């Protein structure tokens, strides 16, 4: 059959089989795929694929293609509720779905493994959409299979159950109800089947056991349902896991090589059993450190299971010390379990007698440089470095588990001296380079225990001098690297006489620098040396400065070369620290540094033809951040800045022209730094490229662009006005964002803020475009607003800013926008202000709202907006509310800054002591180690349970309360500035003369004589509390007026007035007998 010429597709079995077979051939693959895509639209397609994959008469290629197409078909089209499915025309007929649901599990039972794996993915797609509502029968089917005595039926049942538990694995407890209901039926049966095959060590039986373990792990990974599992059943399960760890591995496995042994089901079975026991011990087995609902489980586990499990794990690890094979993942989980057991006195007493033997014969060998390390270093030093600094490599690395165990054990009384004695003996007597490496490794892992321990901290310096310093020059390259690493680990040790030329700190620093700058030194050694320098700078601060100063230029340039060669993310941190600590010394070479960084950037972001694209995103981001730090360094040195700017502009242009969206944030930050004080002509070229990039990438990029647009507007508004095309480009970017209804309210909020800034910053040169701006704001205001509550008030602020700059123009524009109404065109604006008065947030927006209300009071009666004239008393109350919330916002921001300073001080003091058990206080054999972080979490959890939502309300506020005058109880919204408040304009400057307190006092005072009737209306009807609040407001306004006068006099060289002086009581608040004069 010629697939390419077959235009009409019918449900032709032979044609579909041939098409499936053709998908395995590169020549006909595209045509076959197109044919099958058409066939997929027909009823009966999925059942036919099931028929094909189970047809043993078909060749394997056609069967395998059938199951692959079925899996993809189910994944793409089964769930019709998913968004992507709304855009496709294929709908699986319900009759086809019924056939698939009825037969797919039987297919799993009867299929070979290659097909079974794909079917399991397909059944998971079905259960995700249909369980439990449309396919409750799946549990009946699983139960029926488990009730048989047929191993393939058990396997199919367990595979489907595992997929079901995976679907619910990461869901919250209350969302797991369908799974829990199912497992109430299935788990007891699964347990019985597990017991039945426990003694069967065949590969088939162990595969079933492994599946049971994986199912159980999914059930308990994040929570343990106490209704599903009683204490008795919990104990039975735990004993099963321990027995699995005890079971010997079949002798035939010994014939395999180590890599093959690790992959056998027998070792994987032990791994999963240990993984579960670790999870149980960590989350449900530590009395006093678990959630209240698990308290009984914790007591039961520690009392009845922890000690037998410790002995089982110790026996397993003993096999490793005798030369028998134990897989790395099993060692990792076994040591992780013992590290947790060390924290409990009951289990620690069982481990303690074996500590010396474990250190010498298990931990120490794991910490040594081994053949795999040597091979990787020899073959690919760069990969060796990346492997060592890849945090994901530590996840199941026995070396990291050994270090964790050692660190926990060292907290116990008399253990640190024992370990230290052993290590010092190795360093003093052994000439084996690998032994030296292992010993130095343990010294480094115990460094924090040593440098903070009352007994040992004073001797760390001697330890470094005697055993680490000489090894920095060792003939073995990996020992040199380890010695540098060890210095890094001990970098915050106490050093005596650091200013002495022969001090240990200076000698260590000099030796580390030699390793870094030595041309023939190996890359891994250089990387460790560079990181050691960074840690010395952090740990020794001023002491380190004197030691490093003579080498600073060499160090900086060598670190840059290392960044280029190794792409180790941590090295950019070294560079940043050098720049931070040696600003004046780096400034003369800042341009050289920038050039080198740009060269690295260009290399990492350039792909030669034929080369595979590697992901260097993290490294590149680090380089761009370092370039930003360079700009901050030279901002006060115009000549150097000019050269650096020229170098960095190329990087920004490349990011924008290539639309490298991963680096937009960094590019924006670089532009901000380059135009921090002025906008050079070439930077206007960058502005144009930024605009072009934005126009092509769309409004989603707008929030990233806003900081730069604001900076151009704030610093270079004159250059913006000189070139109409630049102004037009900025306006177009804002318009595009504001009119894109798919962009969301947050984007629109920032767009409105930019419009306000543009009006204020460029007044009076933009009067001709103000009508257009106000039209945009007006149109957006009358469209739906979503979750961002500040959008409507922000749009009104755009009108107020225009009103501030040009009242007549604003009134005329509103007159046109409103269709030339008969009444006052300002009525619409003031209606919105008075309606939204509670929604104005932050300092800036409240000030503008108050300005608008104050300005309306100044207008002649015939021009005064109707909402102001009709209800002056309500206007007064709303003005008072706005002033009250404004003062609270100002106070909250000031308090937040004070709190931040206090937090910094507390952090510093916490470094020296926090009242908890210090590291130099050894943990006695009868004491349990308390995890302070866990305790705090549990206490907070308990508190939340007692208070319900009270803590949430206390933190975030319960809403405005006009009657509250307690500063401690104001709405949580006052705690922080608004999202857009950071984008300031001329009105926010100290010398802007824009002071709503002074303005209100002046206007309110003037009303007594200029419009006594309005004044009386504004104050009549206020109750005693409101009158007191008004008096307080007038007092605050007077103090602000005096402070403003004082500031002006001080700026002129005079003296400062006393802002606490009394306020004259010369206001008459209406002719109402019950209202007293101020």
TrEMBL record:
Keyword set, alphabetical order: Cytoplasm, Nucleus, Protein transport, Transport
Segments of skewed composition (Acidic residues): 898-911, 958-970
SUPFAM superfamilies per UniProt = ARM repeat
Signal peptide positions are none
Q: Which GO terms describe its molecular function?
A: small GTPase binding
Q: Localized where?
A: Cytoplasm; Nucleus
Source taxon at top rank: Eukaryota
Q: Where is each Importin N-terminal domain found?
A: 32-110
Check the record and name the SMART domains matching this protein.
IBN_N
InterPro entries linked to this entry? ARM-like (IPR011989), ARM-type_fold (IPR016024), Importin-beta_N (IPR001494), XPO2_central (IPR013713)
Q: Name one GO biological process term.
A: protein import into nucleus
**A GO term from the CC aspect:** cytosol
Q: Region Disordered: what ranges?
A: 897-930, 949-971
Matching entries from PROSITE patterns are given as:
IMPORTIN_B_NT (PS50166)
Which positions, given as ranges, span the membrane? none
Q: What is this protein called?
A: Importin N-terminal domain-containing protein
